[in-house]
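TL;DR need structure tokens for one chain.
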Amino acid sequence: MKKADLIQKSKRVVIKIGSALLIDKKKDKLNSKWLNSLAFDLNDLIKLNKEVIIVSSGSIGLGQKQLGLLGNLTLDEKQAAAATGQITLAHAWKEVMGIHGLNIAQILLAPDDTETRRKHLNARATLLKLLELKVIPVINENDTVSTEEIKFGDNDRLAARVAQMCSADLLILLSDINGLYSSDPNKNKDSIFIDEINEITSEIENMAGPTQTSISSGGMITKIEAAKISTTAGCDMIICDGRLNNPLKNLKQNNSKFSWFKASERPISARKQWISGALQVKGKITIDQGAVEAIKRGNSILSAGIVKTEGIYEKGDLIKVIDKNKNFIGKGLVHYNNSEVELIKGLKSNNIESILGYRGKDEVVHRDDLVLEKVKSKN
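>> reply
TL;DR here they are.
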């Protein structure tokens, strides 16, 4: 497939819009002219029978202005700003889409809505029903209840989780940069533009840098993380410059410049997609080399292969798996809590009952609940 055909050949499209695009920094208010031009683009997609989901930032930035809050905000100030700005943002979306006779629905997602499997499935069902009813969902993180400890932290990863959740074909990150560069193009004039990315290697990850704007929380680092989530789920991802009016129309031009992260040709199962994309890791176990080799052959993690446990976690929580050299091996859902793992680590499975007083599972992490880190090449 050619880059110019990405939108045309995608049925379900998730579009993420950053705060830097929605808010006019010079006037400290919503960039209405730009938003109206985007509405025309979205209407064109709907006419082509595309299913569209919007992930929209901007509520904190808008609310901050309305409440007269200055500088770096505290958590409670951010939550107050989000609660205030969300009304303005939702109203703006309803107005601009209403001009075209399009219905929108507002959905506020907290991290727990995607990290908890049952809530993840419920949110997916709601999204799919809205799309069936020809409604455009407009999604934002529920900043009024999220805390610094349990939040997406940016809407790039939220958009990727949404794309994964609804089995989207394409994720478009409208940004204030036209794609991925070998280094920061603002600091290095010899920086090389990366046109197509077939695989997210260590070299690709090292190209990312910190966010450049005060009103957005993302940056290239979070976009790379979003690409990992979406491409693993079989969804292509685009990073493109959305600052000009009609950004989606511009994207469809043959000479349009953007970075294309290609979807995996062999996406993992839906359950493992959810595990792979999960952000809330509760603890960590260290396994010996024998266990590392065993799980690479498709086996589960048994108590005998565990040498150390860290953190506080309960049965069913997501934990990280590392080797003795602290290399990241993967992550999975654990069948015992941290206190129990501490007692049974290094022991054979047939000893678990005598140690814990009940007969649990032989596997501490079952292979069906384990996602291994993909081996990264340098090219």
